[in-house]
Write a structure and sequence with these properties.
The protein is of the alpha+beta class. The strands form two sheets. It has a seven-stranded antiparallel sheet, with helices on both faces. Strands 1-2-10 form a three-stranded antiparallel sheet. It is globular and about 40 Å long. The termini are far apart.
Length: 183
């Protein structure tokens, strides 16, 4: 167990670093894949990917970019004026299943002891992973939904660093997952 702690800390640091790099430094936007629509009753906007639609709070910032290994695209969302110490974010990875496998994607969550349960996203059976990990950097709250539809793998991730759970952020993410739809 002692050997897993440094590896877990490194894994958390890498996940946070990659997320920060994507959010802070990538300015690639694909105009063809983004369309906004306002819904005044929920104060949300819709992101239109090539194969999916995701509603998210319209005050949130977004960045869309290719995944570094070339397997797909990533949408990074963060609440406006987010506390940099908490680093709240939602990431949607969309990958070509001919270039990677769902098992390869979920394997790190299994290895790091995430609680696994069955779920449904957009009417498709999904795997849900959840964990709260404490390391020298703080406490990471992490929820992940992963599933495959046709030749596409979808991974929806929520992460933030703070001691207590954030009910508002958790609720907003749960709503995003409920309203996630495939084209």
């Amino acid at each position: 167990m002692k050997n897993r702690r440094p590896i877990l800390g490194i894994y958390i640091a890498v996940v946070i670093l990659v997320s920060a790099l994507i959010f802070g430094f990538i300015s690639y936007h694909s105009p063809a894949s983004q369309v906004s629509k306002e819904n005044s009753s929920n104060d949300v906007t819709a992101y239109q990917g090539n194969t999916y639609t995701l509603d998210y709070p319209k005050s949130w910032q977004k960045i869309s970019a290719p995944i570094a290994d070339g397997t797909g695209t990533e949408l990074y969302l963060q609440p406006a004026n987010a506390n940099p110490e908490i680093r709240p974010h939602v990431i949607v990875d969309v990958m070509d299943s001919r270039l990677t496998t769902l098992n390869k994607i979920v394997d790190p969550y299994v290895r790091f002891g995430y609680q696994k349960s069955e779920a449904t996203v957009a009417g498709v059976p999904a795997q849900k992973f959840f964990n709260i990990v404490t390391s020298y950097e703080g406490t990471l709250h992490s929820t992940v939904y992963a599933f495959q539809a046709n030749d596409t793998i979808y991974v929806l991730k929520l992460g933030y660093m703070q001691g207590a759970a954030d009910p508002q952020l958790e609720s907003e993410f749960a709503q995003m997952v409920r309203q996630f739809s495939l084209k």
